[in-house]
Write a structure and sequence with these properties.
74% helix, rod-shaped, 10 helices, mainly alpha
Length: 297
Amino acid sequence: MKRFIKAAIPKSPVFRGTMTGLMLYSIAVVMLVKYVPHFQGMEAKDITATTSIVVGLIFAFRVNSAYDRWWEGRKLWGQLVNDLRNVCIKFDLYFDVTKQEKIDFGLMLVGFACSLRDHLRGIKTDLAAIGLNIGMPETDCDHLPLFTASKIFQFVQSRRDKASHADFDFLLLDKHISALMDICGACERIKGTPISGWFQSSIRIWLSVYLSILPWLLADEFHLWTIVIVVFAGYFFIALEFLAEEIQEPFGIDQNDLPTDRYCLTIADSVRQILSSVPDNMSELKELSAANHPSVK
């Protein structure tokens, strides 16, 4: 229950300040209408019902558009997990390589996931932290996921002679390795296509006007209950706006963003289990994941 309440309240101080301001404003309106003779509420029950429905529809569209972006990101990372698992299974099955080559290949796959996660956050991955050294300083490469994917291609290509049926086995891996950059490009499309600023601004203006008028429409009839009704309505709409703003950029480290750190750990565990030779010493990756997402174990 405590976790549910915590998740339902945005952490932003702007949210708390807005809700406090709305409550004080509602109290002031009720006091003016109730105790000051020259102030009167508005007789507009039909307007209240109509505008509430309109605001509800607008916010349904707003949250739905943001959630579509979040869900598409979730599907892409789920596909990434599956493709990397398939690459591991087929590489281990079809290629007769040494234990060290399995370690190197597994670290490349984990390195791609970590570099994609950090690339979408606008930071560079410390690949050395997971033991990956692929022959190029990070400062010389602006797009680490692209560089890591190319190294994975080169690694598999250079070991085709160790496959039982070289060309056929390579083709079986090729579609999964090619999918890595398809996923990267799709994630970049989500990140690089923000929701229209005009659309967000117009919704906030409409919401501000609605919440400013609402206490005047209710004060005569509901008296002190007006404060409760307005605060509840304000919480519902303002919290939805903050939620939509958070999930429309799903690759960060906010409360409701995708837990990409956890996905990277899942990939590392899968690679380790399938190849049976990837070292378990990835403390840097686990510490970073736990710091960004406390839910990561």
